[in-house]
Design goal:
With 193 residues, the chain is of the alpha+beta class. The longest helix has 17 residues. It is globular, with a radius of gyration of 16 Å. The termini are far apart.
Length: 193
């Protein structure tokens, strides 16, 4: 029997992450008392499974929590780095809502495991979401967000991220717990409550 990371209950651990700033991708109430900072990979099957759960948590807690997306593309997922860069180009050209629409679309459409969403489909997806495809492609081809993605990987690694998804639950006092893997909504509710 194969054991996956979701089969093994993970105990939350104390952790330190880089503080959330206005440059982060935030969904939900920007002033919420509880923050979920998710280090994720757009080609990770566990992240793909977990992404809808984060959306459900936003519905359950409404203005009490906010979700922050940070990039952690794994090196063995060949398309993940470029997809992360593409999401930043979408954000630059279309704003934070378009960023979240792009992330939602990738997770809905990828077959995951590294190359589940073809890189030549990124431009058409951006256009479908209302972003100028030519400007998007120019941005993506420039590699201007490669450094940002690598900085987020380094920040995550320094905070203890070794796999995806890794979620940091930050309370109103700034105390932080890390929950590793695509845990259940119930596991997160226990920590959030």
């Amino acid at each position: 029997i194969a054991i996956t990371p979701t089969d093994i209950p993970q105990q939350p651990q104390q952790a330190k992450i880089k503080p959330v700033t206005s440059s982060d991708h935030i969904k939900g109430n920007a002033k919420a008392k509880v923050t979920l900072v998710v280090y994720s990979d757009l080609e990770c099957p566990f992240c793909q499974k977990f992404h809808p759960e984060t959306q459900e948590l936003l519905k359950i807690y409404q203005d009490k929590i906010r979700l922050v997306y940070r990039h952690f593309p794994l090196s063995f997922h060949a398309n993940a780095q470029k997809e992360a860069e593409a999401s930043e180009c979408v954000s630059e050209l279309g704003g934070n809502d378009k960023f979240w629409n792009f992330v939602d679309a990738i997770f809905e459409r990828t077959a995951s495991n590294g190359t589940g969403f073809a890189l030549d489909r990124l431009g058409p997806l951006a256009a479908e979401l209302g972003v100028n495809e030519q400007q998007f492609q120019t941005c993506l081809d420039s590699g201007k967000y490669e450094k940002l993605i690598k900085e987020q990987i380094a920040d995550g690694t320094a905070a203890g991220v070794s796999g995806t998804p890794s979620t940091f639950i930050v309370d109103s006092k700034g105390e932080t717990q890390i929950v590793v893997g695509a845990q259940s909504i119930e596991a997160f509710k226990t920590e959030i409550d």
